[in-house]
Amino acid sequence: MKHITTTLALAISLAGTAQVKQPVPLKYGAQTTGKRTDEAMQKWRSNRFGQFIHWGLYAIPGGVWNGKTYNYAAEFLKSSARIPTATWDSLMYQFDPQQFDARAWAKMAKQLGAKYMTITTKHHEGFCLWPSQYTDFNVGNTPFRRDILKELVEAYNAEGIDVNFYYSVLDWHHPDWRYDIKSPEDSIAFRRFLGFAGNQLKELATNYPTVKGFWFDGTWDSSIKKNGWWTLEMEQMLKSVRPGVVVNSRLRADDFGKRHFDSNNQLMGDYESGYERRLPNATKDLQVTKWDWEACMTVPENQWGYHKDWTVSHVKSPLELLEMVVHATSMGGNFLLNFGPDGNGGFRKEERHIAGTIGKWMEKNGHVIWNCGYAGWEKQDWGYFTRQNGSTSVNMIVFNRPVSGLLKVKVTNGVKILSARSGNAAFKVEEIAKNEYLIHHTIKKMTAPEVIVLETDTSAQNTDRYQDAKT
Ligand code: H76
Asked: How close is the Cα of 100 to the center of ligand 1, in Å?
């Protein structure tokens, strides 16, 4: 990680371009260039697989209002059913999740194989899962009263799982929130709002000292884009209160209201967080190799908070989701899988099934995910490669076994494959062309994605056995 100096920024803009492009001078743009290399960031990166939790008042109606089911995202019910703020906010007097057991949640996350968890401390509705001193609209004033955030942080940390805080800046409850700044009055109100949000963020960072990251959301409106200074101030404030803390790109806007990537196309924040309900495309989104990133994913098509009716869209199977975990790792990114507990604090059976099934695989094969990343080899049709940080062995994770049983591997120039093993089984390794091998896979029946570990010799020399075709 280097601090951007004018000379360096100029050198970057000159490299590889015939045209001389001067970088735009920015006060609130990216503060650093390239990936962070400090220990806290390395830990964030090595976690690879996380559990997202969306929990708030919206879990109580679960997408149903006055007997009518709204199929848009459950956490947006207030908006889709046009429920007045006072009516929605009074749901807090029904918030009493008797089944809530932070330790049981943390055990399930551990079983899933998650190394971190990101919890909605406050979603767009504005309700806070901690007893914030800056608003009464918080869990301390519900019948339940307990500090849910504190219980979760303690329980997850006890299981060795890092906890990050999701925070929506957009706030449907706060009277000073503005979508845009159109008058001096808006400007004054929104300043007050930014002060409030800053106080809450400082409160979170101070009162929950083991927090590892902040995941900002609801930052896309013009009001925020016109106040890029504030997004930088928040990033710097959080990092000074909690050194090492990791902040997502979604928070940030620069001097010109450009978001995620600044006007010089440099990533703001510590990792790109724009991959929502999709994975980056390895060839089109080339930045995956330049910057850290995380994709977040729902189980149904677009439900984050608890929704009673999961019959209206495709519900992803544990195998589909596991494939995404592996795919993300193979492209050097993190994968955050969402869970939406119900109004009583329990997880639906589909989510428990996912945790059990993915967890069973992770228990045996987590070593090809945690602390692993892009292996540097061309992707093949049977599945994905991952490589553990600094290791000479490469993992194959096979999802689609060809009928021939022959798994093609193309290595980077001069690398030699010495062996291929899956547990106790060793497979024949056949060199078939320059930098090209076939692994003879003999296990015919596959019941789960299979891991084959390749030992390689990176100091081997190419032979001149293979000639390029003359055409
Ligand atoms: C739109 C939107 C929000 N961003 C996702 C991560 C969910 O929190 C969804 O409600």
From this structure: 23
Mean pLDDT over residues 398-421, rounded?
A: 96
Query: Do 411 and 437 form a contact (C-beta atoms < 8 A)?
Result: yes
* Ligand 1 lined by 296 (C-beta under 6 Å): yes
Domain covering 39-371, topology: TIM Barrel (3.20.20)
| Long-range CB contacts (within 8 A, 24+) of 11-15 | 13/264
Confidence of residue 7 (pLDDT cuts 50, 70, 90): very low
Among 381, 382, 277, 394, CA closest to 329:
394
Ligand 1: which atom is nearest the Cα of residue 276? 6
Distance 466 CA to ligand 1 centre (A): 53
Of the candidates 358, 347, 330, 329, which has an alpha carbon nearest to the alpha carbon of residue 449?
358
AA letter at 370 = W
Q: Choose one of 75, 77, 221, 294 to mutate for the ligand 1 pocket test, by most ligand atoms within 8 angstroms of C-beta.
A: 75
Give the pLDDT confidence of 251-273 residue by residue, as tens digits.
Answer: 999 999 999 999 999 999 999 99
pLDDT attached to residue 17:
52
CA of 220 to the centre of ligand 1 (A): 11
C-beta neighbour count of 42 within 10 angstroms:
14
Mean pLDDT of 71-84: 98
Query: In the chain, which residues fall in CATH 2.60.40.1180?
Result: 383-457
The mean pLDDT value for 114-121 works out to 99
Residue 8 pLDDT > 60: no
d(CA 395, CA 376): 12
Cβ burial 217-250 (10 Å sphere, 16+ → b, else e): bbbeeebbbbbbebbbebbeebbebbeebbbbbb
Kindly give the number of the ligand 1 atom that is closest to the alpha carbon of 168: 8
pLDDT at 287 over 80: no
Q: How far apart are CA 304 and CA 308, in angstroms?
A: 12
Closest CA to 251 of 227, 280, 281, 287: 227
pLDDT in tens, 126-146: 999 999 999 999 999 999 999
CATH topology of domain 383-457: Immunoglobulin-like (2.60.40)
Radius of gyration of the chain (CA): 24
Q: Verify whether ligand 1 is closer than 6 Å to residue 304 (CB atom).
A: yes
Kindly tell me if the per-residue pLDDT of 175 is higher than 60.
yes
The reply to whether ligand 1 has any atom less than 6 angstroms from the CB of 49 is no
Residue 16 CA: distances (Å) to CA of 289, 408, 409: 17, 34, 31
pLDDT tens digits, one per residue of 331-359 = 999 999 999 999 999 999 999 999 999 99
CATH code 3.20.20.80 region(s) in the chain = 39-371
